[in-house]
Design brief:
Length: about 250
């Protein structure tokens, strides 16, 4: 029969899918563990602007219980912790979590707890958080994993809770805005000479193959929030390739 797949074939497809996902997680863990030592010292003013815009849109208050997905070494979790009741920071890299824990100890921040885990492994009870935040982490997830995070985030939020994500937000050229962002990034790298040319080649291969970096557009993020059931949904551009998307769980 056309299209028929035996139970044995389906079983092996599931096994293969699981192996590929585990390999992907291992690669991400390795990449971010290697980058951990220099991450705090990377000069990226655009990243700082995205964090500022994200915090402003989240509008955290002293009673908020917050989840920070892909917290890294605390670029978002630490400034937010000064405004809220508690923060749980989650990152796939053990070294990133070590660095964050060291900062927490040095600064006497007792309201931040950390977890070493991939986002896909997380389990929280319904209505655990007032705010769910993430900055420059979710573009490493597949489109289906992004959908899962948004859906689970809706479940983890309390009524009237808010979810705000900051990230690379552009597609693969299907929309005019995507093409403008890609052209701008290529133009900047071209002016850097051979080093920039190499980055164009490397990043183009990763981007087109959807390996490691898998950004989607603001429009696509908004659709995921709509499908999950959020209201008061919106998105803002912050810098050329990055923006924020936000929504509220109905009360």
């Amino acid at each position: 029969m056309c299209g028929f797949r035996s139970p044995e074939l389906l079983k092996w497809e599931i096994v293969l899918s699981s192996v590929i996902e585990k390999l992907g997680l291992a690669v991400q863990r390795s990449v971010w563990t290697k980058r951990a030592e220099t991450w705090d010292h990377s000069e990226n003013p655009g990243l700082g602007r995205v964090i500022e815009a994200l915090i402003a849109k989240a509008n955290p208050t002293s009673e908020c219980e917050v989840l920070d997905l892909g917290c890294g070494s605390g670029q978002l979790a630490i400034p937010v912790s000064n405004k809220v009741k508690s923060v749980i920071g989650v990152d796939i890299s053990p070294r990133m979590i070590e660095l964050l824990n060291s900062k927490l100890t040095q600064n006497g921040l007792g309201n931040v707890k950390t977890m070493t885990a991939s986002i896909q492994e997380l389990e929280f009870a319904k209505g655990s958080f007032d705010l769910i935040l993430s900055n420059y982490a979710l573009h490493h997830l597949s489109d289906e994993q992004k959908r899962w995070v948004v859906s689970q985030g809706f479940h983890w939020l309390k009524p009237n809770g808010r979810m705000v994500f900051g990230d690379m937000m552009f597609g693969r050229g299907g929309r005019k805005q995507d093409r403008q962002i890609i052209a701008s990034k290529v133009s900047i790298l071209l002016r850097k000479g051979p080093g920039g040319w190499w980055r164009i080649a490397k990043n183009s291969a990763r981007y087109l193959a959807r390996v490691q970096e898998k950004p989607i557009s603001q429009h696509a993020w908004v659709r995921l929030f709509e499908q999950a059931g959020f209201q008061d949904i919106g998105s803002d551009s912050v810098v050329a390739e990055a923006g924020i998307v936000f929504g509220t769980k109905p009360g």
